[in-house]
Amino acid sequence: MKHPLVDIAAPCGPSNIIDMDRPILEEESFHRAISLERKRAERSRRSFLLMLLDLRSVLVGDGSEKILHKIFSSLATSIREPDITGWHKNRAVLGVMFTEIPTESRTSTVGAMLSRMSGVLYNSLSFDQFSQVTISHYVFPEEWDCDVQQRPSDPALYPDLAKRASGSKLYLAAKRAMDVVGSAAGLLIFAPLFLTIALAIKLTSKGPVFFRQQRIGQFGTPFVFLKFRTMYLNNDPKIHLDYIRQLISGKAERQPSNGNGQGVYKLTADPRVTRVGALLRRTSLDELPQFVNVLRGEMSLVGPRPPIPYEVDRYQTWHRRRVLEAKPGITGLWQVSGRSRVGFDEMVRLDVRYAMQRSFWLDLKILLLTPRAVILGEGAF
């Protein structure tokens, strides 16, 4: 038995056709609807299709209203009642969200929807008018390829994040200024310590002083992450990969720690770590080279920790919010609110809470609380 979304070539019954009196959402309302639909799709683990019609070339002159009416009329015969229509960009780009697409059949379903929409528009407009309409489409959740050096998340699906950034220009400018001044001062102040640590690493194990690794930054964009090397060369990452798989799925058990006896969600007896590396990790001194990442603009002083690509590959869709909604940082709400003593889902919730509540004063508060967390070594291994 076909799913009703797949069999869209069949004539739409009255219950499947939108009411022509139903208003087309304005830009702000449509952007809000996209945000809500993303969260709904995260919970339902289904997909949705965002189709955008770029009408800028066709909505010119005195006949633009007539053309627009033709387009609205054609949409009314092609969209189900649960689907949402609105302006992605007012009077320029019209958007249609086809909701509740089963993930297992989304490729065939999306292909059928695109074919039907293109055919409906072709039949309702003149050839010249149709040729001036550009149709693009985006499916949520996207299939991220973290091996490609570009942003895998398309801005069209996240207009609310762009609006939030636009409305926070003063905060972002102040945050960037604090990042530049703070990271430059950190590199200068800790320069003697850099030399001491570098010497200790070289004298106790073979290999480079710095560890370079691809991590995932804001919006899923990869970058090269710097740390002092704390492991032996040519180690097998499988031990960490297996633990991450268990951690994200909620099956990891707390590991013994030297703290208050609660245990931590982290590898505490990793055979890959050198003796000097264990000390650097316990004191968080291995993180000092990330001041360079902050100075480059790839990270911030405050934000979620940047994940490894194989971690992101195992994320549930809602987990991605921690890398979508804030630039990664050296320290953050998770580090000063429990660090490795909380499970993975709770860590994500803390990161998302920071992204929603972030302010200059919250950043400053987290920075001031960080030395205490470092000195106490809570959750650091």
General description of the model:
With 381 residues, the chain is an alpha+beta fold. It folds into 2 domains: 128 residues, Reverse transcriptase/Diguanylate cyclase domain (Alpha-Beta Plaits); 215 residues, no CATH class. It has a 4-stranded antiparallel β-sheet, sandwiched between helices. A two-stranded antiparallel ribbon has the order 5-6. A hairpin with a 3-residue loop joins strand 2 and strand 3. The N and C termini lie far apart (54 Å). The relative contact order is 0.10. The N terminus is likely disordered.
Count of runs of 4 or more consecutive helical residues? 15
In whole angstroms, the N-to-C terminal distance is: 54 Å
Q: Output the radius of gyration.
A: 25 Å
- How many domains, as an integer? 2
Mean pLDDT: 85
What is the assembly state of the chains in this entry?
single chain
> In which order are the strands of the major sheet placed?
2-3-1-4
- The secondary-structure element order is HEHEEHHEHHHEEHHHEHHEHHH
Largest sheet: 4 strands, antiparallel
User: How many strand elements?
Assistant: 8
What ranges have pLDDT less than 50 throughout 5 or more consecutive residues? 1-20
Outline type: elongated
Helix content: 40-55%
Question: What structural class do the secondary elements suggest?
Answer: alpha+beta
Note the beta-strand portion. Answer: 5-15%
Topology summary:
Layout: H1 27-44, E1 47-54, H2 64-76, E2 84-89, E3 93-101, H3 106-124, H4 127-131, E4 134-140, H5 159-166, H6 169-189, H7 191-204, E5 210-216, E6 222-228, H8 238-249, H9 275-283, H10 290-296, E7 300-302, H11 309-312, H12 321-324, E8 329-331, H13 333-336, H14 344-357, H15 360-376
Parallel strand pairs: 7-8
Antiparallel strand pairs: 1-3, 1-4, 2-3, 5-6
Helix pairs in contact: 2-3, 6-10
